[in-house]
Amino acid sequence: MKIVVIGAGYVGLVSGVCFADFGHNVICVDVNREKIKDLSNGIIPIYEPGLDELLAKNLQSKRICFSDNLKESIIDAQVVFIAVGTPERRGSGEADLEYVMKAAEEISKFAQNNILIITKSTVPLGTNRKLAEHIKKFNPELKFDIASNPEFLREGSAIEDFQKPDRVIVGIDDDRSKNIIQEIYKPLFLRDFPIMFTSLESAETIKYASNAFLATKISFINEIAELCEKAGADVKDVAKGMGLDNRIGNKFLHAGPGYGGSCFPKDTSALYQSAKSFDVELSIIKTVIDANNKVKSRMIEKIVNASAISLEESTILVLGVTFKPNTDDMREAPSLVIIPELIKRGAKIRVIDPQGEKEGSVLLPKVEWHDDLYHAAVNSDMVLILTEWNEFRAVDLRKLSDLMANPIMVDLRNIYNKDQVFMAGFTGYESVGR
Ligand code: NAD
Fold first, then answer.
1. 36: CA distance to ligand 1 center in Å?
2. 10, 121, 264: which to mutate for ligand 1, most atoms within 8 A of CB?
3. Per-residue pLDDT tens for 324-376?
4. C-beta separation of 374 from 274 below 8 A
Protein backbone atom coordinates (compact mmCIF):
# COMPACT_ATOMS: atom_id res chain seq x y z
CA MET A 1 0.00 0.00 0.00
CA LYS A 2 1.23 3.51 -0.72
CA ILE A 3 1.17 5.64 2.41
CA VAL A 4 2.02 9.31 2.80
CA VAL A 5 2.94 10.59 6.25
CA ILE A 6 2.82 14.36 6.74
CA GLY A 7 5.30 15.50 9.39
CA ALA A 8 8.67 13.80 9.90
CA GLY A 9 9.06 14.52 13.62
CA TYR A 10 9.30 12.01 16.47
CA VAL A 11 5.93 10.45 15.61
CA GLY A 12 5.77 10.87 11.82
CA LEU A 13 9.29 9.63 11.25
CA VAL A 14 9.02 6.60 13.54
CA SER A 15 5.58 5.72 12.12
CA GLY A 16 6.78 6.16 8.53
CA VAL A 17 9.86 3.98 9.06
CA CYS A 18 7.84 1.31 10.88
CA PHE A 19 5.10 1.28 8.20
CA ALA A 20 7.86 0.82 5.59
CA ASP A 21 9.22 -2.02 7.70
CA PHE A 22 5.73 -3.57 7.68
CA GLY A 23 6.20 -3.72 3.88
CA HIS A 24 4.29 -0.61 2.72
CA ASN A 25 5.62 2.06 0.38
CA VAL A 26 5.98 5.21 2.40
CA ILE A 27 6.69 8.82 1.57
CA CYS A 28 7.34 11.09 4.55
CA VAL A 29 6.64 14.72 3.75
CA ASP A 30 7.87 17.63 5.83
CA VAL A 31 8.02 21.39 5.27
CA ASN A 32 11.51 21.43 6.79
CA ARG A 33 13.75 21.01 3.74
CA GLU A 34 16.94 20.49 5.68
CA LYS A 35 15.33 17.64 7.60
CA ILE A 36 14.17 16.07 4.33
CA LYS A 37 17.63 16.36 2.81
CA ASP A 38 19.25 14.76 5.86
CA LEU A 39 16.69 11.98 6.09
CA SER A 40 17.07 11.17 2.39
CA ASN A 41 20.76 10.61 3.16
CA GLY A 42 19.98 8.44 6.16
CA ILE A 43 20.83 11.20 8.68
CA ILE A 44 18.36 11.34 11.55
CA PRO A 45 17.75 14.76 13.10
CA ILE A 46 16.58 13.33 16.43
CA TYR A 47 17.99 10.80 18.86
CA GLU A 48 15.85 7.69 19.01
CA PRO A 49 17.52 4.35 19.77
CA GLY A 50 17.45 1.91 16.84
CA LEU A 51 15.88 4.34 14.38
CA ASP A 52 19.03 4.84 12.30
CA GLU A 53 19.39 1.09 11.55
CA LEU A 54 15.72 0.69 10.70
CA LEU A 55 15.76 3.76 8.45
CA ALA A 56 18.92 2.59 6.66
CA LYS A 57 17.35 -0.83 6.05
CA ASN A 58 14.17 0.63 4.57
CA LEU A 59 15.96 3.30 2.55
CA GLN A 60 18.06 0.57 1.03
CA SER A 61 15.04 -1.50 0.13
CA LYS A 62 13.46 1.69 -1.29
CA ARG A 63 10.31 1.26 0.76
CA ILE A 64 10.65 4.74 2.26
CA CYS A 65 11.60 8.10 0.80
CA PHE A 66 11.33 11.71 1.92
CA SER A 67 10.00 14.80 0.21
CA ASP A 68 9.03 18.42 0.84
CA ASN A 69 6.51 18.27 -1.99
CA LEU A 70 3.08 16.98 -0.94
CA LYS A 71 1.56 17.57 -4.35
CA GLU A 72 3.90 15.09 -6.02
CA SER A 73 4.03 12.70 -3.08
CA ILE A 74 0.31 12.23 -2.66
CA ILE A 75 -0.35 11.12 -6.28
CA ASP A 76 -1.69 7.53 -6.13
CA ALA A 77 -1.61 7.44 -2.31
CA GLN A 78 -4.53 5.54 -0.80
CA VAL A 79 -3.78 6.76 2.67
CA VAL A 80 -2.35 9.91 4.22
CA PHE A 81 -1.42 10.20 7.88
CA ILE A 82 -1.29 13.60 9.53
CA ALA A 83 1.52 13.55 12.12
CA VAL A 84 2.32 17.25 12.52
CA GLY A 85 2.74 18.96 15.89
CA THR A 86 -0.14 20.13 18.07
CA PRO A 87 1.70 22.32 20.60
CA GLU A 88 0.04 24.30 23.35
CA ARG A 89 -1.24 27.63 22.11
CA ARG A 90 0.60 30.25 24.14
CA GLY A 91 -1.46 31.68 26.95
CA SER A 92 -4.66 29.71 26.32
CA GLY A 93 -3.66 26.16 27.27
CA GLU A 94 -5.58 24.87 24.22
CA ALA A 95 -4.04 22.68 21.51
CA ASP A 96 -2.85 24.79 18.59
CA LEU A 97 -4.40 23.12 15.53
CA GLU A 98 -2.79 25.44 13.00
CA TYR A 99 -0.42 22.79 11.59
CA VAL A 100 -3.10 20.11 11.42
CA MET A 101 -5.53 22.43 9.62
CA LYS A 102 -2.83 23.56 7.21
CA ALA A 103 -1.94 19.95 6.42
CA ALA A 104 -5.63 19.24 5.81
CA GLU A 105 -5.89 22.19 3.42
CA GLU A 106 -2.94 20.89 1.45
CA ILE A 107 -4.41 17.39 1.31
CA SER A 108 -7.68 18.87 0.02
CA LYS A 109 -5.83 20.54 -2.84
CA PHE A 110 -3.74 17.62 -4.03
CA ALA A 111 -5.29 14.32 -2.95
CA GLN A 112 -7.20 12.02 -5.28
CA ASN A 113 -10.71 10.77 -4.65
CA ASN A 114 -11.27 8.02 -2.07
CA ILE A 115 -8.25 8.89 -0.03
CA LEU A 116 -8.35 7.89 3.63
CA ILE A 117 -7.07 10.71 5.86
CA ILE A 118 -5.85 9.43 9.22
CA THR A 119 -4.99 11.74 12.09
CA LYS A 120 -2.06 10.54 14.18
CA SER A 121 -1.45 13.91 15.79
CA THR A 122 -3.03 14.26 19.23
CA VAL A 123 -6.12 16.38 18.66
CA PRO A 124 -8.92 17.42 21.03
CA LEU A 125 -12.38 15.96 21.06
CA GLY A 126 -14.32 16.96 17.95
CA THR A 127 -11.28 17.88 15.85
CA ASN A 128 -11.57 15.06 13.30
CA ARG A 129 -15.11 16.10 12.38
CA LYS A 130 -13.98 19.74 12.15
CA LEU A 131 -11.11 18.61 9.96
CA ALA A 132 -13.54 16.87 7.60
CA GLU A 133 -15.62 20.07 7.38
CA HIS A 134 -12.48 22.08 6.75
CA ILE A 135 -11.46 19.81 3.87
CA LYS A 136 -14.97 19.92 2.36
CA LYS A 137 -14.87 23.71 2.50
CA PHE A 138 -11.60 23.81 0.58
CA ASN A 139 -12.51 21.13 -1.94
CA PRO A 140 -16.22 20.22 -2.00
CA GLU A 141 -15.57 17.76 -4.87
CA LEU A 142 -13.07 15.56 -3.02
CA LYS A 143 -14.37 12.18 -1.87
CA PHE A 144 -12.51 11.08 1.25
CA ASP A 145 -12.89 9.28 4.56
CA ILE A 146 -11.43 10.28 7.85
CA ALA A 147 -10.07 8.20 10.73
CA SER A 148 -8.43 8.93 14.04
CA ASN A 149 -5.43 6.80 14.99
CA PRO A 150 -3.79 8.47 17.99
CA GLU A 151 -0.23 7.44 18.71
CA PHE A 152 0.97 6.08 22.06
CA LEU A 153 4.68 5.55 21.40
CA ARG A 154 7.16 6.80 23.98
CA GLU A 155 10.31 8.61 22.94
CA GLY A 156 13.32 6.49 23.86
CA SER A 157 11.50 3.22 23.12
CA ALA A 158 9.47 4.43 20.16
CA ILE A 159 10.26 1.60 17.74
CA GLU A 160 9.52 -1.16 20.23
CA ASP A 161 6.30 0.66 21.22
CA PHE A 162 5.25 0.96 17.58
CA GLN A 163 6.11 -2.60 16.66
CA LYS A 164 4.77 -4.17 19.84
CA PRO A 165 2.04 -1.83 21.02
CA ASP A 166 -0.18 -2.42 24.04
CA ARG A 167 -3.01 -1.46 21.69
CA VAL A 168 -3.79 0.35 18.46
CA ILE A 169 -6.77 2.66 18.79
CA VAL A 170 -8.71 3.63 15.69
CA GLY A 171 -11.71 5.93 15.44
CA ILE A 172 -13.71 5.37 12.24
CA ASP A 173 -17.05 6.14 10.66
CA ASP A 174 -17.28 3.43 8.00
CA ASP A 175 -16.27 -0.13 7.09
CA ARG A 176 -14.08 0.83 4.13
CA SER A 177 -11.73 2.70 6.49
CA LYS A 178 -11.72 -0.26 8.86
CA ASN A 179 -10.58 -2.61 6.08
CA ILE A 180 -7.80 -0.25 4.98
CA ILE A 181 -6.54 0.18 8.53
CA GLN A 182 -6.58 -3.58 9.10
CA GLU A 183 -4.43 -3.87 6.00
CA ILE A 184 -1.99 -1.18 7.21
CA TYR A 185 -1.58 -2.85 10.59
CA LYS A 186 -1.75 -6.42 9.27
CA PRO A 187 1.62 -7.47 10.77
CA LEU A 188 0.29 -6.49 14.19
CA PHE A 189 -3.12 -7.97 13.54
CA LEU A 190 -1.52 -11.31 12.63
CA ARG A 191 0.42 -11.34 15.89
CA ASP A 192 -2.70 -10.64 17.97
CA PHE A 193 -1.83 -7.16 19.17
CA PRO A 194 -5.15 -5.58 20.16
CA ILE A 195 -6.59 -3.23 17.54
CA MET A 196 -9.65 -1.48 18.89
CA PHE A 197 -12.09 0.20 16.53
CA THR A 198 -14.32 2.86 17.98
CA SER A 199 -15.89 6.21 17.09
CA LEU A 200 -13.83 9.27 16.18
CA GLU A 201 -14.83 10.95 19.44
CA SER A 202 -13.92 7.96 21.60
CA ALA A 203 -10.51 7.57 19.93
CA GLU A 204 -9.74 11.24 20.52
CA THR A 205 -10.79 10.93 24.15
CA ILE A 206 -8.86 7.68 24.75
CA LYS A 207 -5.62 9.44 23.82
CA TYR A 208 -6.12 12.44 26.10
CA ALA A 209 -7.62 10.46 28.96
CA SER A 210 -4.68 7.99 28.85
CA ASN A 211 -2.05 10.73 29.02
CA ALA A 212 -3.97 12.60 31.69
CA PHE A 213 -4.29 9.43 33.78
CA LEU A 214 -0.54 8.76 33.59
CA ALA A 215 0.18 12.39 34.49
CA THR A 216 -2.20 11.97 37.44
CA LYS A 217 -0.20 8.98 38.70
CA ILE A 218 2.98 11.07 38.57
CA SER A 219 1.47 14.07 40.35
CA PHE A 220 -0.12 11.74 42.88
CA ILE A 221 3.17 10.09 43.85
CA ASN A 222 4.90 13.49 43.92
CA GLU A 223 2.39 14.67 46.51
CA ILE A 224 2.80 11.48 48.51
CA ALA A 225 6.58 12.08 48.31
CA GLU A 226 6.16 15.41 50.06
CA LEU A 227 4.17 13.69 52.79
CA CYS A 228 6.81 10.95 53.08
CA GLU A 229 9.52 13.56 53.62
CA LYS A 230 7.59 15.18 56.46
CA ALA A 231 6.42 11.89 58.01
CA GLY A 232 9.69 9.94 57.77
CA ALA A 233 8.45 7.40 55.21
CA ASP A 234 10.33 6.36 52.06
CA VAL A 235 8.40 7.04 48.84
CA LYS A 236 10.31 4.33 46.96
CA ASP A 237 9.05 1.73 49.42
CA VAL A 238 5.59 3.27 49.37
CA ALA A 239 5.44 3.19 45.56
CA LYS A 240 6.76 -0.36 45.47
CA GLY A 241 4.22 -1.49 48.04
CA MET A 242 1.40 0.24 46.17
CA GLY A 243 2.55 -1.08 42.82
CA LEU A 244 2.43 -4.68 43.96
CA ASP A 245 -1.34 -4.30 43.86
CA ASN A 246 -2.27 -5.31 40.30
CA ARG A 247 -5.10 -2.81 40.27
CA ILE A 248 -2.55 -0.02 40.74
CA GLY A 249 0.57 -1.30 38.96
CA ASN A 250 4.12 -0.05 39.51
CA LYS A 251 4.51 2.12 36.40
CA PHE A 252 4.52 5.91 36.60
CA LEU A 253 4.92 5.89 40.36
CA HIS A 254 8.41 7.40 40.45
CA ALA A 255 8.62 10.56 42.52
CA GLY A 256 10.71 13.31 40.94
CA PRO A 257 10.78 16.89 39.70
CA GLY A 258 7.43 16.63 37.86
CA TYR A 259 6.40 15.40 34.44
CA GLY A 260 7.64 17.15 31.30
CA GLY A 261 8.10 16.28 27.66
CA SER A 262 6.28 16.93 24.45
CA CYS A 263 2.98 15.37 25.53
CA PHE A 264 1.84 15.36 29.17
CA PRO A 265 2.04 19.11 29.88
CA LYS A 266 0.28 20.19 26.69
CA ASP A 267 -2.18 17.28 26.63
CA THR A 268 -3.38 17.70 30.23
CA SER A 269 -3.84 21.37 29.54
CA ALA A 270 -5.62 20.82 26.21
CA LEU A 271 -7.91 18.20 27.76
CA TYR A 272 -8.86 20.58 30.55
CA GLN A 273 -9.56 23.41 28.10
CA SER A 274 -11.46 21.29 25.59
CA ALA A 275 -13.69 19.85 28.35
CA LYS A 276 -14.61 23.40 29.28
CA SER A 277 -16.02 23.90 25.78
CA PHE A 278 -18.42 21.04 26.63
CA ASP A 279 -19.25 22.75 29.95
CA VAL A 280 -17.37 20.11 31.90
CA GLU A 281 -14.94 21.10 34.64
CA LEU A 282 -12.23 18.44 34.94
CA SER A 283 -11.21 19.32 38.47
CA ILE A 284 -8.84 16.36 38.92
CA ILE A 285 -6.88 17.32 35.80
CA LYS A 286 -6.71 20.94 36.95
CA THR A 287 -5.23 19.78 40.27
CA VAL A 288 -2.73 17.54 38.47
CA ILE A 289 -1.53 20.48 36.37
CA ASP A 290 -1.24 22.75 39.42
CA ALA A 291 0.57 20.08 41.42
CA ASN A 292 3.05 19.59 38.58
CA ASN A 293 3.86 23.29 38.50
CA LYS A 294 4.17 23.40 42.28
CA VAL A 295 6.55 20.45 42.51
CA LYS A 296 9.20 22.31 40.49
CA SER A 297 9.23 25.18 43.02
CA ARG A 298 9.52 22.63 45.80
CA MET A 299 12.54 21.10 44.04
CA ILE A 300 14.20 24.51 43.70
CA GLU A 301 13.83 25.13 47.44
CA LYS A 302 15.20 21.64 48.12
CA ILE A 303 18.31 22.45 46.06
CA VAL A 304 18.80 25.81 47.76
CA ASN A 305 18.45 24.28 51.22
CA ALA A 306 20.85 21.45 50.42
CA SER A 307 23.63 23.78 49.33
CA ALA A 308 26.58 24.03 51.73
CA ILE A 309 27.32 27.60 50.63
CA SER A 310 25.27 30.45 49.18
CA LEU A 311 24.06 29.94 45.62
CA GLU A 312 25.98 33.04 44.45
CA GLU A 313 29.22 31.22 45.27
CA SER A 314 28.09 27.81 44.04
CA THR A 315 29.06 25.84 41.00
CA ILE A 316 26.47 23.15 40.39
CA LEU A 317 27.12 20.17 38.16
CA VAL A 318 23.81 19.09 36.60
CA LEU A 319 23.50 15.51 35.35
CA GLY A 320 20.84 15.35 32.64
CA VAL A 321 18.66 18.03 31.10
CA THR A 322 16.42 16.11 28.69
CA PHE A 323 12.89 15.46 29.96
CA LYS A 324 13.71 11.78 30.33
CA PRO A 325 16.56 9.40 29.40
CA ASN A 326 17.12 7.99 25.90
CA THR A 327 15.86 11.05 24.08
CA ASP A 328 17.28 14.40 23.02
CA ASP A 329 13.87 16.01 23.50
CA MET A 330 13.94 19.01 25.82
CA ARG A 331 10.32 20.07 25.43
CA GLU A 332 8.91 21.10 28.83
CA ALA A 333 11.81 19.40 30.62
CA PRO A 334 11.94 20.24 34.37
CA SER A 335 15.54 21.42 33.72
CA LEU A 336 14.14 24.37 31.75
CA VAL A 337 12.46 25.68 34.91
CA ILE A 338 15.00 24.61 37.53
CA ILE A 339 18.28 25.65 35.84
CA PRO A 340 17.26 29.23 34.86
CA GLU A 341 16.00 29.79 38.42
CA LEU A 342 19.31 28.60 39.90
CA ILE A 343 21.18 30.87 37.49
CA LYS A 344 18.91 33.77 38.46
CA ARG A 345 19.85 33.15 42.08
CA GLY A 346 23.54 33.38 41.21
CA ALA A 347 24.69 29.77 40.73
CA LYS A 348 27.13 28.77 38.00
CA ILE A 349 25.89 25.71 36.11
CA ARG A 350 27.87 22.97 34.39
CA VAL A 351 25.92 20.35 32.47
CA ILE A 352 26.51 16.81 31.26
CA ASP A 353 23.85 15.13 29.12
CA PRO A 354 24.49 12.26 26.67
CA GLN A 355 22.14 13.70 24.03
CA GLY A 356 20.83 17.04 25.30
CA GLU A 357 23.51 19.49 24.22
CA LYS A 358 22.28 20.20 20.69
CA GLU A 359 18.87 21.47 21.76
CA GLY A 360 19.95 22.40 25.26
CA SER A 361 22.62 24.84 24.12
CA VAL A 362 19.86 26.92 22.49
CA LEU A 363 17.39 26.63 25.38
CA LEU A 364 19.93 26.97 28.20
CA PRO A 365 22.45 29.45 26.82
CA LYS A 366 24.08 30.37 30.14
CA VAL A 367 25.40 26.97 31.12
CA GLU A 368 28.78 25.35 30.54
CA TRP A 369 28.58 22.04 28.61
CA HIS A 370 30.94 19.20 29.45
CA ASP A 371 31.58 15.74 28.06
CA ASP A 372 33.59 14.31 30.92
CA LEU A 373 31.81 13.93 34.24
CA TYR A 374 34.93 13.84 36.42
CA HIS A 375 36.54 16.78 34.67
CA ALA A 376 33.31 18.75 35.10
CA ALA A 377 33.17 17.86 38.80
CA VAL A 378 36.46 19.56 39.70
CA ASN A 379 35.83 22.17 42.43
CA SER A 380 32.06 22.01 42.07
CA ASP A 381 29.81 22.47 45.09
CA MET A 382 26.90 20.21 44.24
CA VAL A 383 25.97 17.44 41.85
CA LEU A 384 22.31 17.70 40.86
CA ILE A 385 20.67 14.73 39.11
CA LEU A 386 17.78 15.84 36.90
CA THR A 387 17.54 12.99 34.35
CA GLU A 388 18.11 9.33 35.14
CA TRP A 389 20.31 8.37 32.19
CA ASN A 390 21.89 4.94 32.74
CA GLU A 391 25.33 6.57 32.50
CA PHE A 392 24.60 8.39 35.77
CA ARG A 393 23.68 5.26 37.68
CA ALA A 394 27.15 3.78 37.70
CA VAL A 395 29.27 6.78 38.62
CA ASP A 396 32.44 6.29 40.70
CA LEU A 397 31.04 8.23 43.66
CA ARG A 398 34.31 8.20 45.61
CA LYS A 399 36.22 9.71 42.69
CA LEU A 400 33.44 12.26 42.21
CA SER A 401 33.35 13.38 45.84
CA ASP A 402 37.15 13.67 45.96
CA LEU A 403 37.11 16.09 43.03
CA MET A 404 34.38 18.35 44.39
CA ALA A 405 34.92 21.38 46.61
CA ASN A 406 31.70 20.63 48.50
CA PRO A 407 30.55 17.05 47.92
CA ILE A 408 26.80 17.47 48.12
CA MET A 409 24.38 15.44 46.00
CA VAL A 410 20.79 16.39 45.18
CA ASP A 411 19.27 13.38 43.48
CA LEU A 412 15.86 14.35 42.10
CA ARG A 413 15.42 10.92 40.44
CA ASN A 414 16.18 8.80 43.52
CA ILE A 415 18.82 6.74 41.72
CA TYR A 416 21.18 6.55 44.72
CA ASN A 417 20.62 6.16 48.42
CA LYS A 418 21.91 8.07 51.38
CA ASP A 419 24.18 5.39 52.90
CA GLN A 420 25.89 4.67 49.61
CA VAL A 421 26.51 8.34 48.91
CA PHE A 422 27.79 9.15 52.42
CA MET A 423 30.09 6.11 52.37
CA ALA A 424 31.64 7.51 49.19
CA GLY A 425 32.61 10.72 50.95
CA PHE A 426 29.67 12.99 50.27
CA THR A 427 28.72 15.26 53.15
CA GLY A 428 25.15 15.92 52.04
CA TYR A 429 22.47 13.98 50.16
CA GLU A 430 18.93 15.03 49.29
CA SER A 431 16.45 13.05 47.27
CA VAL A 432 12.67 13.07 46.75
CA GLY A 433 10.26 11.63 49.29
CA ARG A 434 12.85 9.92 51.47
P1 NAD B 1 7.44 17.23 16.02
O2 NAD B 1 7.37 18.66 16.35
O3 NAD B 1 8.63 16.43 16.40
O4 NAD B 1 7.23 17.02 14.45
C5 NAD B 1 6.25 17.66 13.69
C6 NAD B 1 6.78 17.78 12.28
O7 NAD B 1 5.72 18.25 11.44
C8 NAD B 1 7.91 18.80 12.12
O9 NAD B 1 9.02 18.17 11.51
C10 NAD B 1 7.32 19.90 11.24
O11 NAD B 1 8.27 20.49 10.39
C12 NAD B 1 6.28 19.12 10.46
N13 NAD B 1 5.19 19.91 9.85
C14 NAD B 1 4.45 20.87 10.42
N15 NAD B 1 3.53 21.33 9.54
C16 NAD B 1 3.67 20.61 8.40
C17 NAD B 1 3.02 20.59 7.13
N18 NAD B 1 2.00 21.39 6.86
N19 NAD B 1 3.46 19.73 6.20
C20 NAD B 1 4.51 18.92 6.44
N21 NAD B 1 5.16 18.88 7.63
C22 NAD B 1 4.76 19.72 8.59
O23 NAD B 1 6.12 16.59 16.69
P24 NAD B 1 5.94 15.13 17.30
O25 NAD B 1 6.58 15.06 18.64
O26 NAD B 1 6.28 14.12 16.27
O27 NAD B 1 4.37 15.12 17.55
C28 NAD B 1 3.45 15.02 16.48
C29 NAD B 1 2.09 14.73 17.05
O30 NAD B 1 2.09 13.44 17.68
C31 NAD B 1 1.63 15.72 18.13
O32 NAD B 1 0.25 15.91 18.03
C33 NAD B 1 1.96 14.99 19.43
O34 NAD B 1 1.13 15.38 20.49
C35 NAD B 1 1.67 13.55 19.04
N36 NAD B 1 2.41 12.56 19.83
C37 NAD B 1 3.73 12.77 20.12
C38 NAD B 1 4.44 11.81 20.84
C39 NAD B 1 5.89 12.02 21.18
O40 NAD B 1 6.41 11.26 22.01
N41 NAD B 1 6.58 12.99 20.61
C42 NAD B 1 3.79 10.63 21.24
C43 NAD B 1 2.46 10.44 20.90
C44 NAD B 1 1.78 11.41 20.19
1. 14
2. 10
3. 999 999 999 999 999 999 999 999 999 999 999 999 999 999 999 999 999 99
4. no
